[in-house]
């Protein structure tokens, strides 16, 4: 019974850290270039 809870805790921690690691590797988080729609927007929109 105690081992089941231990394995559940270890599995939950592994899933959580894996998810966070994958999400933090997204290239858009580290891309400092200006967005395309802001680069080519006309200056006088009426």
Automatic annotation (TrEMBL):
One of its GO terms (biological process) is monoatomic ion transport. It comes from the Eukaryota. GO terms for cellular component: membrane. It comes from Onchocerca volvulus. This is Neur_chan_memb domain-containing protein.
């Amino acid at each position: 019974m105690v081992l089941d809870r231990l394995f559940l805790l270890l599995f939950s921690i592994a899933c959580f850290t894996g998810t966070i690691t994958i999400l933090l590797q997204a290239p858009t988080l580290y891309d400092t270039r200006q967005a395309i729609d802001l680069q080519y927007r006309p200056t006088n929109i009426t």
